[in-house]
Amino acid sequence: MAAGCTCSTRRARRRVRRSSKAVDIAIDLVERLDRVLPQTQCGQCGFAGCRPYAEAMARGEAGVERCPPGGDAGARALAKILDVTPVPYDRSRGTHKPPIVALVIEADCIGCTKCIQACPVDAIVGGSKHMHTVIEPLCTGCELCVPACPVDCIEMVSAA
């Protein structure tokens, strides 16, 4: 150690090293949980998106049962990562459905951009007063664009 280094300084350095390892472990856990989540960013879990939900689970502030898009299989996968008893997803939060995507009926679109603003993953493109379209591979099926549309020109269709 450097000259003048006190025991308390050495202890503080050890604490910093230990706490950075704990942070790395926590970040790794959040990443693993986030990868299992469906990335719909729908908010049905009560959080602003999948990442905040993963962070809450990693902190022990949320259970594995809160994600309807993930269904029972998702809840089981999250439980395995957290090493907790698996439980079915909470059906009061929504219904698990097969994968769907948004489809803009372009002939009816007035180009208001409200769906673009509502989309959490930027899967809808178009300009003001021009028709909009959905980039299907980016659409997570969260359905947040549907109520935002004032002319009801967005339908949810099977992703298959």
Write the topology of this structure.
Elements: H1 7-36, H2 50-59, H3 71-82, E1 100-104, H4 114-118, E2 124-125, E3 133-134, H5 145-148, E4 154-158
Antiparallel strand pairs: 1-4, 2-3
Helix pairs in contact: 1-2, 1-3
Task: Give a description of the structure.
By secondary structure, this protein is mainly α. The chain folds into 2 domains: about 5-95, Orthogonal Bundle (3-methyladenine DNA Glycosylase II, Chain A, domain 3); about 100-160, Alpha-Beta Plaits, CATH 3.30.70.20. It has helices at about 5-35, 50-60, 70-80, 115-120, 145-150; strands spanning about 100-105, 125, 135, 155-160. Strand 2 (about 125) and strand 3 form a beta hairpin. Helix 1 crosses helix 2 and helix 1 runs antiparallel to helix 3 (about 70-80). About 25% of the residues are buried. This is Rnf electron transport complex subunit RnfB. InterPro entries: 4Fe-4S_dom, 4Fe4S_Fe-S-bd, 4Fe4S_Fe_S_CS, Elect_transpt_cplx_RnfB/RsxB, RnfB/RsxB_Proteobac, RnfB_subfamily. GO terms for molecular function: 4 iron, 4 sulfur cluster binding; electron transfer activity; metal ion binding.
Beta-strand portion reads: 5-15%
CATH fold type of the largest domain: 3-methyladenine DNA Glycosylase II, Chain A, domain 3
> Which percent range fits the helix content?
25-40%
- H and E order: HHHEHEEHE
Show unreliable segments: 8-16
Rg, alpha carbons: 22 Å
**CATH arch. level architecture of the largest domain:** Orthogonal Bundle
How many angstroms separate the termini? 63 Å
Give the strand line-up of the largest sheet: 1-4
| CATH C-level of the largest domain | Mainly Alpha
Keywords: 4Fe-4S, Cell inner membrane, Cell membrane, Electron transport, Iron, Iron-sulfur, Membrane, Metal-binding, Repeat, Translocase, Transport
Binding site for [4Fe-4S] cluster 3: 119, 139, 142, 145
Organism: Noviluteimonas gilva
Domain 4Fe-4S ferredoxin-type: 100-129, 131-159
